[in-house]
Amino acid sequence: MLYSFHLFAGTFKNEKDAQKFAFEHWEPEPSADTCDSDYEAWERRNPIWPLKQELGFYMDSDFVELVTDLSYLNDLIQSESEKSILAKCLSEKYSHYIIIGSEAIYGDRRAPLNDKQLREPVSTESLVYLGKFNSKIQNN
Fold first, then answer.
1. What pLDDT, on a 0 to 100 scale, did the predictor assign at position 139?
2. Would you state the pLDDT for residue 1?
3. For the chain, what is the HEC assignment?
């Protein structure tokens, strides 16, 4: 099934580092005899999700995908014009691509609480934003 998504590219040392960046993970839970303040501090720090932190959006982690197979990535794109845009973006050598479903971004952590306007994603320190693909598809 085709769906609308934002695409980012990055270079990571290995698969483990890419996964630690792209997906949320947790520190080991404190032991049962940990004091309440230490446990509450642990809860505030977790989950750890560098991708979410860097992008500054509220996101649903179920719709984030880490990709290294460019043919798979190309197959996800519906229009030939968007495939050619992707081909131009791939002139650089990246180790990994991160797909975030368009519907998975549902809020801006940098905006005031009453601001319903959602800014477009941009490149960050670790990632190059390659654009939104399949934007003309109706997501169900």
1. 47
2. 60
3. CCCCEEEEEECCCCHHHHHHHHCCECCCCCCCCCCHHHHHHHHHHCCECHHHHHHCEEECHHHEEEECCHHHHHHHCCCHHHHHHHHHHCCCCCCEEEEEEHHHEEEECCCCCCCCCCCCCCCCCCCEEEEEECCCCCCC
Q: Is residue 139 part of a domain?
A: no
* Domain ranges, residue 115: 5-133
Output the pLDDT for position 115.
65
Least confident among 17-21, 40-44, 89-93 = 89-93
Task: Determine, yes or no, domain membership for 11.
Answer: yes
What integer pLDDT is reported at residue 113 of this predicted model?
Answer: 65
If one counts the domains in the chain, the total is 1
**67-76 residue pLDDT tens:** 998 889 999 9
